[in-house]
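Hi team,

Below is the intake form for Cobalamin-dependent protein from Actinomadura nitritigenes. Please confirm the fields before the structure is written into the shared record.

FORM ID: S-0412
PROTEIN: Cobalamin-dependent protein
ORGANISM: Actinomadura nitritigenes
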Amino acid sequence: MTVETPGTQAPVQPADTRQVIRPYGDTTGDGMVQMSFTLPIPAGKRADAAALQLAGKMGLDPASVVHAKPMGPDFTFFIVYGRVGHLIDYASIPVPEERAYPLLSSQEVNLAIRGALNRRLVVVGACIGTDAHTVGIDAILNVKGFAGEKGLEYYREIQVVNMGAQVTVEELVERAKAENADAVLVSQVVTQKNAHLHNTKQTAAAFHAEYPTAVAAGMGRPLLVVGGPRFDTVTEEDLGVDRIFGKGTTPAEVASYLVHALLPGEAVREARQADDDEGEDGR
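The structure came back. Fields below:
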């Protein structure tokens, strides 16, 4: 039996601030997930059993093979559906940092460059190594752009040199020097055996070697920017570049970053103010 001293209260228990969630498949909170993988074995019932054993070891219980397709005589692609017992406390996940620079309109970008440089900002872009996929670099550079936004070719004050695919590091460095580039954009879509990481490190090393007296990006050497779908496990410091952009990046984000990284902040503030004033005059 607990006796409380008159005038005292039991300590207040802290509120439960957790936000526990689990995967959703057929009904809310059922924990069902779908995953795909390839095993180096011929398709068949024995292969299905191997896929289910792997799924079980990964925590899916029960699990079922909902799709199995041969990939040549010695490989099989699987899609497995099953339940996991894992929970996530969503409230404990920190909110990602916001963009460190404002997202600018094309008019603001043009005004900032014209005001700060009194010339066009030169951007050289390429897919390097054996990567023949230009979809990424074209989405950022070509005037047709991506996600409803026009590419950097659309910006009057940006001069774009798109070298295309399968460009060697030596060719990229040489062209960047010849064009007196302010920024170099490298797209890497092919990621087998971490080729994108090796190629990017090689590129960064080549540029740092070519500009040994450079103080920083824009101060003796071009700004080095790399983009692609699988750079989320590394940092700029790991690769020796100034900026990494991941999947879903739009031309406006890249243009805004170039202005933020290469131009003085005062030029950006003046460009935004001038754009605001012009908008008010037009109303």
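SUMMARY LINE: Residues 128 and 167 are 5 Å apart (CA to CA).

Thanks, M.
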